[in-house]
Amino acid sequence: MSDIVGILERELGGDAIVGPGHERLDDYGRDESPLPEFFPPLCAVLVESTEQAAAVLRICLERKVPVTPRGAGSGMCGGALPIAGGIVLSTERMKRIIEIDPGDLIAVVQPGVVTGVLQAEVEAQGLFYPPDPASLEYCSIGGNAATNAGGPRAFKYGVTREYILGLQVALMGGEVLRCGRRTAKGVTGYDLVAGFVGTEGTFGVITELVVKLLPKPPAAATVLGVFPDVAAAGSAITMLLRDGLRPRVLELADKSSIDHIRGKSRYRFPDNAGAIVLIEVDGEPESMEMMMEKIGVRCDELGAIDVLAATEPAERRAVWEARRLISPSLKEAYRIKVNEDVCVPRGKIVEMLARVDQVSAETQIKTCVFGHAGDGNLHVNLLSHDDPEDPAVRKHMWAAASRIFEHTIALGGTLSGEHGIGLTKRDYVHLEQSEQVLEWQRRWKLMWDPSNLLNPGKKIPARTKPCSE
Ligand code: MLT
Ligand code: ZN
After folding, report:
1. Whose CA is nearest to atom 3 of ligand 1?
2. What residues are paired with 379 via a beta bridge?
3. Phi and psi at residue 158, in whole multiples of 5°?
4. How many CB atoms lie within 10 A of CB 455?
């Protein structure tokens, strides 16, 4: 393994390598996960093409060197951390939008394209790429595909997987696979594209994507239902869902979330807000207005203390900037922020909110809840000013996270609605999935990567007992 840096330097050129002693190398040992430690790789390789990615994967298999693929490093679960050492393969330089085709309603992009940049480019042509993770200003489309990222608009438009039609993937050993299509429909063969999306860089390295686009909705508007507390906001969401209303966004933010962004955002949330339901509608202006009217009336009936509308683009932008600030503001305010993205069946949102309060009371850990409640997807944040490296503190925080997971599963939910499993949730997957299900996934992983060198130790826990037991 020792000469791998030199071999890669000779193959790709020194400019592609962030090697030992480089001031940026440590950055590749961190991501946005709540882990205090970092995992420095031997080097990071910043590839510029599929051929280069394939060459790295060929060399690493020959030398038996672990490889951790990395997009923008904005993942929250440690998926891009090189925990087994070896090298990091970064796609950050693959930033080209190769094609936008308004007739076929597709774009072909490299994985390092920043999601918000793609959105702005297609919108300038009257098109729309809906998936909108909160990190859209710095996360990249390859990472979104690797984690099957969601976002607020997933409520109406679905998550990243629904927008990936085709992929080019470099496999461990250097083979390049092209799968999928650029047609609107297609059922030929097994759906390898769907199989690759969400695998968190454990099957291959995505080097090109064909993404589906929609026509840009003619107009959009945002409505804020201000509620006295989170329970009232949660039950209002349940009722709006039962009404069959389908805005494009149905979000929740509790008082603590709102308080943390006061003074930081251009948008001023009302002082009396005990919780906010953030709703966004889109479509033709007339039908949109009717929908907003209906939602406003329902929010009033469901106990809102105020209903505010943001129709002007500048005001809407300010609302969304504020919403996207919640997570970074919490990170800034606390030394520990264990942020989960559990997802419960929609009918269980109110019950889940109550159980989060219960865990907070039992553990004396401050919690803060916001997120994509219309999908049942709640960002439960466990917060502390204590030392993140203190083993007792760490144990206490993760025991609380474990309780949150247990409640989620008991309500028929899932550990992760959108952030992925990576490293931080890997050891809790058994709470949700049987050993049989895990074993089939291990076999699937080994089909693509028999030497287990590609992002090892992520996504699925290692086998602890024979499958038959
Ligand atoms: C969000 O919705 O803001 C993101 O998923 C980030 C987070 O959960 O912290
Ligand atoms: Zn989110």
Report:
1. 134
2. 341, 370
3. 85, 175
4. 33
225 pocket-lining for ligand 1 (C-beta < 6 Å): no
Strand partners, 237: none
Q: DSSP letters along 258-271, please?
A: HHHHTTTSSS---T
Closest ligand by atom to 338 CA:
1
CATH class held by domain 217-329: alpha beta
Give SS3 for 310: strand
Class level of CATH domain 4-90: alpha beta
Please tell me the residue having the least CA distance from ligand 1 atom 9. 327
Q: How far is the CA of 34 from the centre of ligand 1 (A)?
A: 13
Give pLDDT tens digits along the chain (469 positions).
Answer: 559 999 999 999 999 999 999 999 999 999 999 898 889 999 999 999 999 999 999 999 999 999 999 999 999 999 999 999 999 999 999 999 999 999 999 999 999 999 999 999 999 999 999 999 999 999 999 999 999 999 999 999 999 999 999 999 999 999 999 999 999 999 999 999 999 999 999 999 999 999 999 999 999 999 999 999 999 999 999 999 999 889 999 999 999 999 999 989 899 899 999 999 999 999 999 999 999 999 999 999 999 999 999 989 999 999 999 999 999 999 999 999 999 999 999 999 999 999 999 999 999 999 999 999 999 999 999 999 999 999 999 999 999 999 999 999 999 999 999 999 999 999 999 999 999 999 999 999 999 999 999 999 999 999 875 444 4
| Residue 379 Cα: closest atom of ligand 1 | 8
Helix H or strand E encompassing 396: helix 391-410
Is the CB of 327 within 6 Å of ligand 1? yes
Domain 97-215, CATH among 3.30.70.890, 3.40.50.10490, 3.40.50.720, 3.30.465.10: 3.30.465.10
The CATH number for 334-451, chosen from 2.30.42.10, 3.40.50.150, 3.30.70.2740, 3.40.710.10, is: 3.30.70.2740
Q: What is the pTM of this model?
A: 0.96
